[in-house]
Write a structure and sequence with these properties.
Helix content: 40-55%
Order of helices and strands: EHHHHHEHHHHHE
Number of helices: 10
Strand content: 15-25%
Radius of gyration: 20 Å
Largest sheet: 3 strands, antiparallel
Number of domains: 2
Shape: elongated
Distance between the termini: 28 Å
Number of strands: 3
Strand order of the largest sheet: 1-2-3
Length: about 240
C-alpha cells in the first residue's frame, strides 16, 4: 500500500465534516444505446463518478438490482439484460481512474452494437440524463485529537459523513487515500496495520451503513469497543462548496 501521510510531531486534529449532494444537469442525454455510448465519450468524469457512486447517498427503499445508473437504464429502458449485467459487474475501485471506467463501458457497448442488427431505443419518457453532482460540505465542529477517540465516534458518524471521508476522499488525492488513512499516516508507522486494513476495504458493493459498520469494526479491533457516552456526529454547521 502506498504510504498515506507522513510522520509528524504535532498531529493536526481530525476535522469531521458532513456533506450533501446537489444534482446538476450536463445537457447530455441518450435515447438509445448508440447515444449512450456517445454520451459516455463526452460526459465529464464527475458525471461518470456520480452515476457509479451517487446512489449511495440517494434514498431508496430496497436493494438496487444494478449498482450503477448506466446498467440500470440499459436493463429497464432498453431491455438489454445481458449487457446490463456485464456493465453492473464493473467495480470502479478496480480501475486507476474514471477514465479507465469510461473506456470499459464504451467497449462493452460497442461490442453489443457490433453484435446487434438494430439499435435498442428507450421510450420518449425514459431518456437517460447525464448528471453531475456538486458536494456541499458542512463543518460539524467536531475535532478529534487521537485515533482512539475517532474509534469511539465512528459508529455514530452519519452515513453522508462517512461517504465524504472514506469514499469521496479517495478521488481527491493521487494516492487514492481516504481521510482516515491520511490522518493516521501523520503518526508514521504507529498505525500502519490499521491503515493497511482500511485501504484494503472495498466499499462499492456495500451500503453506507454496512461500510460504516466495517470501518468501525476495524477501528474497534485496534482500540477496543466504543464508549457509549459519545454523541452522534450528524449536525450540519457552516456550509461550504467543494472546489
Amino acid at each position: 500500500m502506498e504510504n498515506c501521510g507522513r510522520p509528524a510531531h504535532d498531529v493536526t486534529p481530525f476535522a469531521a465534516r458532513d456533506c450533501a449532494l446537489i444534482s446538476l444537469a450536463t445537457g447530455i442525454t441518450a435515447e438509445n444505446l448508440r447515444e449512450l455510448r456517445d454520451g459516455l465519450m463526452r460526459a465529464p468524469e464527475s458525471s461518470l463518478y456520480h452515476h457509479f457512486w451517487g446512489r449511495l447517498l440517494r434514498p431508496h427503499f430496497d436493494e438496487p438490482e444494478y449498482l450503477n445508473d448506466f446498467a440500470s437504464w440499459v436493463h429497464h429502458s432498453l431491455r438489454e439484460k445481458a449487457l446490463a449485467e456485464r456493465m453492473s459487474l464493473i467495480d470502479p475501485t478496480d480501475y486507476s481512474d474514471m477514465e479507465d471506467v469510461r473506456h470499459e463501458l464504451v467497449e462493452l457497448i460497442e461490442q453489443r452494437l457490433d453484435e446487434s442488427e438494430s439499435v435498442p431505443w428507450a421510450k420518449v419518457d425514459q431518456r437517460f440524463y447525464f448528471i453531475r453532482a456538486q458536494l456541499v460540505l458542512f463543518d460539524t465542529g467536531l475535532r478529534v485529537e487521537h485515533p482512539a477517540e475517532l474509534s469511539a465516534l465512528l459508529p455514530r458518524f452519519s452515513t453522508s459523513s462517512l461517504y465524504y471521508h472514506f469514499i469521496d476522499a479517495r478521488r481527491r488525492n493521487q494516492s487514492h487515500c481516504d481521510d482516515f488513512c491520511s490522518w493516521l499516516g501523520a503518526y508514521g508507522d504507529q498505525f500502519s496495520d490499521l491503515t493497511q486494513r482500511l485501504a484494503g476495504l472495498d466499499p462499492y458493493f456495500s451500503s453506507l451503513h454496512e461500510t460504516r459498520h466495517r470501518v468501525a469494526e476495524i477501528f474497534a479491533e485496534r482500540f477496543g469497543p466504543p464508549d457509549e457516552e459519545w454523541d452522534d456526529v450528524n449536525g450540519p454547521g457552516r456550509p461550504e462548496i467543494q472546489p
